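Whether sequence alone determines local backbone shape is best considered at the level of individual chains. The sequence in question and its structure tokens are set out directly beneath this paragraph.

***
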Amino acid sequence: MKKRYLALLLSLLLIAALLCGCGSSPASEQAYYSASAADYAYAEEAAFDAYDGAYWANEDVPAAPEPMPMSAEVPAQTNPAKLIYTANLEMETLDFDEALSALAELTAELGGYYESSSVSESGSTRRASCTVRIPAENYRRFLDEAAGDLCHVLSRQEYTEDVSENYYDTSGRLETQRTKLARLQELLAEAEDMADIITVEDAISETEEMIDRLSGTLRHYDALVDYSTVDISLREVKVYEPEPDPTYGSRLGAAFVDGLRGFAEGLGDILIALAYSWLWLLLIAGVVVLILWLTRKRRAARREARSQRKARAAAAAAAPPTYSRPEDAPSDGTEE
């Protein structure tokens, strides 16, 4: 009897833990349901297995307690946006060593660090490539002060990625798994039968693995959000060459290149759309081929019918006329 109650309690708590997670992340309720489908299926299967085990053991199966009510109202929450900032800086300098030193000092002053750095030399020209991680609150200041008085900015590109939805979806799923783990640990402490212990330990192992994976995803997002990424390319030059005003030819060439790029992107989108609808295209192609075959067959039948009519008409014209009465036949000028 005690084993039967324990199995039923295990199954109900697994399902209750999953239902409790529905309110952990209001902004990600729909994503949670799709992500937890496998977990819910596992809990439901465990419940049926526990019931069947109690039944075939010829034990009385008690009525299941009422399930935990699910809150109909979700409290409103305001979560800060999770934004990832990245930028590319291409600069040139007359004093290469001094510019590198100033860039390193600015990075340290703003609390950043170098993720990677390399210096190459080609002839009398040196080039530095580095990736700098800057705290997000100092990201804009770093971009404004990176050139300083020693560098000339050739290009500056900035990108922003909003990962708020994915972040809070992952956070809600993590909270659900932690709740589930706590319930499973309580059940493990109460379990006495070896089969029940093994079942609960397997569920705990899977839950801990899911928690580690979700925690790693959140740590990765936090690292990208807290520290912005700036890729810098610095080239040594002898003199700054002013950028010439664009001529008519350069503008025409740029317009041609942009048009070609836009055509290529549009063609790529069309190919992707065709790849998504290949089954419909195959069906349409089959219908078109069938229609063409039937049309060609009908035309061939018509041509055959016309040929037969012409042949009959020619045969009728070449045959001698026949008369129903002999006196109607024309006379050849001789008398009997």
Q: What stands out?
A: Confidence is low (pLDDT under 50) at residues 21-45, 47-76.
